Amino acid sequence: MLEFPLPRMRTSSRCLSIVLFDEVALLDVAAPLEVLTTAGRSWNFRLFKVRTVAGSPGRLKTPSQLTLEATASFDDVPSPDLVLVPGGYGARRALDDEAVVGYLSRAGAKAAHVFGVGNGALLLGKAGLLDDVTVSIAADGAALLREVAPRARPDVDSRFCKDGRVVTAATPGGAVDAALRVVQDLLGKKQALAVALSLGATPPFDSTDVAIVNSE
Questions:
Q1: Which residues have C-beta within 8 Å of that of residue 166, sequence separation ≥ 6?
Q2: Which of 26, 89, 105, 208 makes a 20 to 30 Å CA pair with 68?
Q3: 139 sits in which H/E element
Q4: What are the Cα distances from residue 200, in Å, to 46, 142, 193, 195?
Q5: How far apart are CA 66 and CA 96, in angstroms?
Q6: What is the DSSP secondary structure assignment for residue 46, as one 8-state letter?
Q7: Coil, strand, or helix at residue 131?
Q8: Which residues are registered as beta bridge partners of 113?
């Protein structure tokens, strides 16, 4: 059995705010969320307390024919530790939603991490959070990113980018890698590797220098 010793760390859960809107991409939510909520589970520790937020509580449509439910309004979660902004076509439409952009501007300015997936990066840019930041984004979104955030640096080649507290991924697959990097930052490389192994994912770092403790 593999065991990963518990490092010294904050023992209370962090607040993770997931911003929702109609036509949000389901996998952009689920892929990084599974990584972030798996972290610490083997210790019976919850790294994040998840809150789904929108302009008002309620169900929101996805292109995958399922609905997601926002259980809180933006006013209910003013100061999350991490803000996750998924993409999809709905993210482009939400560029004109003052409530969404305003929340990201306020909450994102104070959060320890802001995390944009796919077109979610466009919303981070519109909220003024990507000045002088390198951003992982699909080629077809780079021009619009330059329009909404002229000081952002689009990167259409990298699976994900972490530039300070800003994390971006062009695709859900890249978002898994990016979320593992967030886990590494918060809990250490050993726990990030444990999460990757449990999900069958390839860790986005060199795992050869991670000691694995064998226990009978």
A1: 113, 114, 116, 124, 129, 130, 133, 135
A2: 105
A3: helix 139-148
A4: 20, 31, 10, 9
A5: 24
A6: -
A7: coil
A8: 82
